[in-house]
Amino acid sequence: MKTKLAQMLFVAGALMLPVAGHSAEDKDSDRTSPKAFVKDSVITAKIKAEMAKDKQVSALRIHVDTDNKGIVTLTGNAKTLAEADRAVAIARDVKGVVSVENNIKVSSTDRMSK
Known about the structure:
alpha+beta; Histidine-containing Protein, Chain: A; 4 helices; 50% helix; 18% strand
């Protein structure tokens, strides 16, 4: 139990390190800056968490990338068109997302049945 707590605290500390070391100037336009990276990561994490809760979407097969302007790109594979559409809907509903680019590939068996 103590090991798990220590691991969680270590991860939390590691995630906060870039935020604590950030200078006062705004570098949101540069994705390599800690502030922009953390902001992008938070949006991506929220989308992945919502996908994990949804039984229709596989959070493991669908990949999420968020750029510094809030544009989300979804890639990977979906078993059905409905799964791909649901993943897009989940991403659009997350705060901070400006637009969603859907590059998810749907398995050929689903396309044939439509």
